[in-house]
Amino acid sequence: MTRKVLGKGLSSLIPGPPPPNLATAPPTPYVEIDLDRIDPNPSQPREQFGEEGLEALAASILQHGVVQPVLVRRRAERYQMVAGERRLRAAQRAGLRRIPAVVREVADEQMLEVALVENIQRQELDPIDEAQAYRTLIEQRGLSHSDLAERVGRERSTVSNSLRLLSLSDNIQAQIRRGVISSGHARALLALPDTKLRETIARRIVGDGLSVRQVEKLAGGTSARRRRVNRTELNDPNTRHAEERLMHALGTRVRIVREAEGGRVEISFHSEEELQRLFEQIVG
Predict the structure, then answer these.
(1) Among 85, 124, 130, 243, which one carries the catalytic annotation?
(2) Which CATH number fits domain 4-127: 3.90.1150.10, 3.90.1530.10, 3.90.1170.50, 3.40.190.290?
(3) Is the model's pTM score more than 0.70?
(4) Is 32 an annotated catalytic residue?
(5) Using one digit for the tens of pLDDT, what is the confidence trace for 59-115?
(6) Which stretches of the chain are assigned E, i.e. beta strand?
(7) CA-CA distance, 161 to 153, in Å (whole number)?
């Protein structure tokens, strides 16, 4: 369910005149501003813009112009970007000297919030940028997850799950930024018990193309195994350590089952391809 804040758009965050009748309303008034008079937003939530995407947008701007004005605020004789920096950068690449802009009064404490909502609406943030912006807003404004969700038009669970991505390693976060590991993969990785195992499975996601469902099975199996172990096994660090080393080496769930003086080693696989990979890895 989409919350009202996101449905109202930026007008819910920026004071302005009441909305006119949409059937007769003229387009939002804007002005043409020289690109070199616009300074960046110091609270820009987007850290990476992507060369390929910027080139594509620049080509579109060359053909069609800047369809959506950027949002700025006045600062003395200059302007400061509030939302739309990607369009600004693409316009610069396209060789434009001026860009259409809507000028509004935006308080310092609203800069990140407004930019975040605008980027969410345009779906321009990668999952890590979005999570980092949420964390910054929580720290700066002292918001709860529920309060923040209401402000940016998200469900509370969406905000909480987004913030959990920041507990993943820098390497995995970089893969999420690149789009190699999806948000679904990331949520499944979070269910794995330790960082090293997450890294192992992340390499398999990239190298072997594991689906989200396959990672969920690996994570679920590991969690179930931890719930099933008896007190003797819990008190046997050697067995636990051996299991973890085997899981890290093979990239799949491994269980050591002790029976009297012996026992067995169970290696899980979820497809013929994975069985073939394990076979080749073990026998060399």
Answers:
(1) 85
(2) 3.90.1530.10
(3) no
(4) no
(5) 888 888 888 888 888 988 899 888 888 888 889 889 999 999 989 888 887 787 777
(6) 31-34, 38-39, 70-75, 78-83, 98-103, 254-259, 262-267
(7) 15
